[in-house]
Structures are given as C-alpha cells and as structure tokens.
Design a protein that fits this description.
The protein has an eight-stranded parallel β-sheet. It has helices at about 25-35, 50-60, 80-90, 115-130, 140-150, 170-175, 195-200, 230-240, 245-260, and strands at about 10-15, 40-45, 65-70, 95-105, 135-140, 160, 180-185, 205-210. Strand 7, helix 7 and strand 8 (about 205-210) form a beta-alpha-beta unit. It is α/β, with parallel strands linked by helices.
C-alpha cells in the first residue's frame, strides 16, 4: 500500500485532470481522498477542443471543483479560429476560473514553435476579453514565452506559470511581471535542486501548489499515478525546503489560489459534496 498523505487543512490543487484514469474511474473516491488530505478546492484542466467542454461539465457537478479551458501547446497546430472561438465561449462560464493551459513546449515540439506562439498570444487575448487569469505551460521556452507576454498588453489578473521547472532567474522574470509560480511533485525529486532554488526564492504570496495529476507524483509516491490528495506531500516537502510550517504553507498557498483565480471562500469538504448533476 502506498503511504497515506498527511493532512493540511486549506490545500488547493491548482492543476489536475480529474477525468484521466484512474481518477475518472473513481471520481468520488479521488475527491474523498483529497478531502481527507485537507484539499478544499481543485482546478480541473480541459486543454483540448474535446476536453475543455467536458471540464466545464465536470466542474458544474461539484461546488469545490473549478475548470480552466484552453488548447495545450502540444495541440497548437490545431488552434484555428473555430477552436479558439469555442474556448472563448467556454471561458465565460461561471465555473471557469482561468484560460489555459496554453504556452510553449520546446522539449517535445509536438506543434511548431510559431504555432505555439500564435496560440499563446490568442489565449492571452481571450483571457483579457473574459477578465480571467491565464495558465501557462512553459518548458525549455522561457525567453520566447516572456517575449509573447511582453508583446501583449498586461492582463489585469495576470496568471500562473504552472508546474514551474525553471531557474531562480527565470522565476524572477515571471514574478517581476506579476505572475504566480505553481510547483508540482517535480520539486520533490532528488535531482531537482536547481528548481528548489526557485522554490526558496518565490515570495510567500506568489506560491501555488499543484499535482498535475495523473502525472508527476511526488516523493514518496513517485512512479505511481498521481492524484490530488498527493499535493499534501508536495506541500510538506516544499515547506521543508523553505523553512516554513507545512500547515501554514497550505493555508498561504490556498489563499494565493483564491487571489489569482478568484475562487470563493471554501466550504468544509471533509465529506465530498454530492454531485450537482448526473455524470456527463
């Protein structure tokens, strides 16, 4: 049996995909385990033309689950006018709290860099139009991503560099532009010392926590499928890196999530709320 996550009240998993296996096969159990670990709110990511409307529908079923909608940089070649119009329409839904994830991924380059840059710029304009923050996926592309952001007018609500894996200098560049940094289980990996320098440098009012589930399970469950409850392991590890109390870090990061995403004050979800609509 894998170790059970600790409990830190007030956690927010700011980036997960609840419809991916194995979470989608046992969503009630997934949400209950998250609640048992102290997770009070979750942001479910829909990052394709297919998954974005599904994310909105899933978020509608649970009061403490919210959605972000966009087209992942891996699929940017397909981010044509019709696809972007669909995302813009979905982004106006009350349960959608952010646009994305969008951004640049030059590690895989599943889409051409130029297409990724164009899609990222278009998502920034959608975020401006709906007055919601942006969620950015940046891998091996910080200079170009910063250039895209700088070429656009600043968003009133800025946004988040999710699953941040850059250096302390790259972190400083995003922080200077008003962005939040979200850290995943990667920050717990033994070889991630450069990333932990960014963790230490991040101001307490700009730090977010995420799982990126079902990916990137943190130590001590690395190698397993990830799920929102495991954000508690990441919280504990990052608190140790920063010299913080983990319970206080959970509360602080949760407050940061509500600040950037405009989430409501959380309800008590120690018992997972009943679905508000039948599964779609």
């Amino acid at each position: 049996m894998p170790p059970r996550p600790p409990h830190f009240a007030g956690l927010v998993d700011t980036h997960c995909r609840l419809d991916y296996a194995p979470m989608g096969d046992d969503l009630a159990g997934t949400l209950q385990r998250a609640a048992d670990a102290g997770v009070v709110q979750l942001i479910h990511i829909g990052c394709s033309r297919v998954s974005a409307p599904q994310a909105v529908a899933l978020a509608a079923r649970y009061p403490h689950v919210f959605a972000a909608v966009g087209i992942h940089p891996h699929e940017a070649d397909g981010a044509d006018a019709a696809a972007l119009a669909e995302i813009a329409a979905l982004a106006r839904d009350a349960k959608v709290v952010a646009v994305g994830e969008t951004g640049l991924d030059y590690f895989y380059k599943n889409s051409a860099p130029a297409a990724q840059q164009q899609a990222m710029a278009a998502h920034l304009e959608i975020a401006r139009a709906v007055d919601k923050p942006i969620v950015l996926h940046i891998r091996d592309a910080h200079p170009d991503a910063l250039a895209v952001v700088d070429a656009a007018a600043p968003l009133p609500r800025r946004g988040v560099v999710h699953c941040f894996t850059g250096t302390a200098d790259e972190a400083a560049a995003w922080l200077a532009r008003g962005y939040y940094l979200s850290f995943s289980g990667i920050a717990t990996f033994p070889q991630a010392e450069a990333l932990r320098a960014a963790v230490r440098a991040c101001p307490p009012d700009r730090l977010l926590l995420e799982t990126d589930a079902p990916y990137l399970a943190p130590v001590p469950v690395r190698g397993r499928k990830n799920e929102p409850a495991n954000v508690a392991f990441t919280c504990a590890h990052l608190a140790g890196v920063r010299g913080d109390d983990p319970a206080e870090l959970a509360v602080r990061a949760g407050a940061n999530a509500r600040a950037v995403f405009g989430l409501p004050a959380p309800a008590d979800v120690r018992q997972v709320p009943t679905s508000q609509a039948p599964p779609g």
